Amino acid sequence: MAFLLNRPTLSRLSWLPLQPEDFSTLLQTREFRLQLLAAIAAATQRIYLCALYLENEEAGREILDALYQAKQRCPSLDIRIMVDWHRAQRGRIGEGQSNCNASWYREEAARRELDIPIYGVPVQTRELFGVLHLKGFVIDDTVYYSGASLNNVYLHKQDKYRFDRYHLIRSPQLADAMAGFMVEQFFNDPAVFRLDKPTPPTRSIRKEIRQLRDKLVHSQYRMTHGASAEQLSITAIVGIGKGNRLNRVILDVIASAEHHLFICTPYFNFPRSVVLEINRALRRGVEIDIVVGDKTANDFYIPPEQPFRVIGALPYLYEMNLRRFVKRQRQFVNRGELRVRLWKDGDNTYHLKGIWSDQRYILLTGNNLNPRAFRLDLENALLLHDPQRQLQAQSQAEQQNILRHTTLLGHYRQLEDVRRYPEQIKKLLTRLSRVRIDRMLNLML
């Protein structure tokens, strides 16, 4: 246990033993969709899907149809869906509210005889200040864990995909813990309503939403410690709000590294605490790979030839952050001790997040490793402890698959300077910087 003693948060976690053959890494987005559909078709006990959103397009409809078919086949099957309350009741950015997913849920429920509840979970009174960002689909005794939501691009239903991480963990104890959390925290809470039925306006349940958030601050997965220090093991962590348990685990995982860190984040906007731990790791001789999406692989990116929208400035703001970071750390970049890589594959987008620390800890998470995730959203993660390196081959295969479409940054000047940005973007970012609103945006987005 010596490796845990100087990492107080890690030492207090409840670790479940896991067999290597019960952990599987999928490398392709389309494969994850096919595996998910096959598992739904074969389920016999329960299907609990928790995602930011289930969207009314081909992939979302395919998932919902599969759930209704599973319920038809096995009426006793316990099927429940949880999505963010706010996200479900608005259209995509730039679209009207009439196109919202909640309307689709109600239409589907009205035309079908079977009952599949779709819960809207509000973790804050406004979407800007926090959303349901829990990940993990529990199907019988297996957890399907990914940062992906349920729509075409996340599930590669058509020509484009949003690249994420995809893992299957066969563990009755872990599945029970994650399903039990949803039951305990959501299904009977007065702030949580079914979106497949008429719902009250958000303003009428503000008190209940605040009470739910207060409850979630103190919540955690219920697991019994059953693994020895030398076993492959796994634990689940949940967190919401500043200084939460998941934040501390993430910082401890970075601080535990002695030789190598491999970090993925889609939006380069590390919290200050993460930057400090990365700086400490570099100073103690840890080699670090950071893989981040190119600005054109960001899901908010708008090509210059398309109409300008303010949200399209975000990828440029993240690139500015990255340029400053690489410039500050150029001594480590020059020595090859810090390797920053940009991911880009045609018109596809990048959504990976997670950390490997010395191949001893593997963090699977939907947490974007940004201030919003560390302060506002309800986040979770699965942390694996692999002291015997039993998952090393899978980890190396996954890392190589991630690196396949990356370019190594040799100098910060390889990233565009703000002076070369499209004129409207340049004017907006310059104006925001002058009044320091860009700092506030970095905290919120």
TrEMBL record:
The lineage of its organism: Bacteria, Pseudomonadati, Pseudomonadota, Betaproteobacteria, Neisseriales. Belongs to the CDP-alcohol phosphatidyltransferase class-II family. The gene is pssA. Residues 128-154 form the PLD phosphodiesterase domain. SUPFAM superfamilies: Phospholipase D/nuclease. The keyword Protein biosynthesis does not apply. CDD domains: PLDc_PSS_G_neg_1, PLDc_PSS_G_neg_2. This is Phosphatidylserine synthase. Pfam families: PLDc_2. PROSITE patterns: PLD. InterPro entries: PGS1, PLD-like_dom, PLipase_D/transphosphatidylase. Keywords: Lipid biosynthesis, Lipid metabolism, Phospholipid biosynthesis, Phospholipid metabolism, Repeat, Transferase.
